[in-house]
Amino acid sequence: MTAEMMKSMPMAEMPMGMDMMAMQEAIEACSACMQACTMCSDAMGGMEDMGTCASMCANCADMCTTMMRVMMRPMAMDMPSMMAMLEATIAMCKACMDECMSHAEMSETCRMCAQACEMAMNACMKMLSSMKAMA
Amino acid sequence: MTAEMMKSMPMAEMPMGMDMMAMQEAIEACSACMQACTMCSDAMGGMEDMGTCASMCANCADMCTTMMRVMMRPMAMDMPSMMAMLEATIAMCKACMDECMSHAEMSETCRMCAQACEMAMNACMKMLSSMKAMA
Amino acid sequence: MTAEMMKSMPMAEMPMGMDMMAMQEAIEACSACMQACTMCSDAMGGMEDMGTCASMCANCADMCTTMMRVMMRPMAMDMPSMMAMLEATIAMCKACMDECMSHAEMSETCRMCAQACEMAMNACMKMLSSMKAMA
Amino acid sequence: MTAEMMKSMPMAEMPMGMDMMAMQEAIEACSACMQACTMCSDAMGGMEDMGTCASMCANCADMCTTMMRVMMRPMAMDMPSMMAMLEATIAMCKACMDECMSHAEMSETCRMCAQACEMAMNACMKMLSSMKAMA
């Protein structure tokens, strides 16, 4: 539905050549990552010695929520700030993925969360590459 | 993926008898509504005389984000506060749906947003009913 | 600064008789509560057997963020949804205050967080009363 | 209160040498900027030809909310992701400041919002410098 709705929107402010398919994938990957991180943060907050993982996931959930929302606002599409936010989301997803992956053997929740982080990181990298190619 | 991940989580704090299927549907409907409202708010902010619609959608996007996150934290499941939040989400989705519906003929974005609001409202009503039946 | 900026804003959509002083106090109390809950959630996620408190605080931080933002959007001021959100914030702050208060003797962080929850709860109650008096 | 509460928190995970005074100032500047941008976005959404400004402010409000929360979670303090987020917040505040400043003569709301963006940008720059000096 998101993709269909995006098509109904005024795009006059959108920079020419923006890869809408890559953006759509990044929106969906950030949405999935935000959900995975919110759940993982909840579960890890209740486990011994997992406080860093819980807070890392809370940070990643917040960054992904912000990134997703920014990509859904074509009226304000600004190349430098959007590229810096993609860099920040990539860095945050990487840190959270590494943290969760280190607990993947003992926690299925962490394993799935690491996977969601990796997918969001990759989708944001692809989006960033397409924007660098435009510049 | 959200449903699968939810199954991996510790549920000791979850009140007995919670309708997990209804909750899953409410999470997804709130997620879709948050996305629709974020996009509609962006589009309406740039149209003449649509400021109320833009801000109503911003409010609804925030409430749906919060509602969705709260349902993804089984560790803190608290019946009275969750029921009050469902009431708030229902009221906010209703107000935003009514506002967007009144512009549905001139804006396809508003028409789709009203639809997403209605689905989130209905899913939250169903969840609330199932919780009232537990009490 | 928030109060000063609010004065610069167009208020044509604001319902007549809204108690701007009570609203200002509720905005500030929600802002302080969001900060306290974010910090308390972080600290409790790393302590044994405090997972419920950590997630309760995460829920309260999200609800207070949403409530505060909604009060800062006079263009979309809608009485029924705003009153339902005030009820939800009051319920959430009450639940989080009770949880944190039960750990106040062993944690100074929880004691201060409970205080911030109480202040936000009271400020939202005052705002809600003033809105009920208008109706 | 935020500063006092921060002192009550476990800081074992906090990297040595972090400038707590600069962080406190950045938290407060991001909080003020988030409030200013939320109000400015609401007001501009209702004005002709101000849609880009409204959405830019919505983006900036979201980024500042995320940045502020991340700084209030010492358990998950991770240098690379926090530095990337500071860069993103600086870029977003800069873009929003420039946009709002261009309307400062006709709107007191925009003028004050530009000021809040500038203060958040400067506070994040100071924090980033202090972190670069640690590395």
Summarize the topology:
The structure is a homotetramer of 135-residue chains.
Chain A: H1 2-7, H2 20-45, H3 51-71, H4 79-101, H5 108-134
What would your notes on this structure say?
Four copies of one chain form a homotetramer. By secondary structure, chain A is an all-alpha fold. Chain A has one domain (19-73, 82-134): Substrate Binding Domain Of Dnak, Chain:A, Domain 2 (Up-down Bundle). Chain A has helices at residues 2-7, 20-45, 51-71, 79-101, 108-134. In chain A, helix 2 runs antiparallel to helix 3 (51-71), helix 3 packs antiparallel against helix 4 (79-101) and helix 4 packs antiparallel against helix 5. The longest helix of chain A has 27 residues, at 108-134. The radius of gyration of chain A is 16 Å and the shape is elongated. The model of chain A has no long low-confidence stretch (mean pLDDT 96). The A-B interface holds A 1-2, 4-6, 8-10, 13, 27, 31-32, 35-36, 38-40, 42-43, 45-47, 61, 65, 68-69, 72-76, 107-109, 112-113, 116 and B 1-2, 4-6, 8-10, 13, 27, 31-32, 35-36, 38-40, 42-43, 45-47, 61, 65, 68-69, 72-76, 107-109, 112-113, 116.
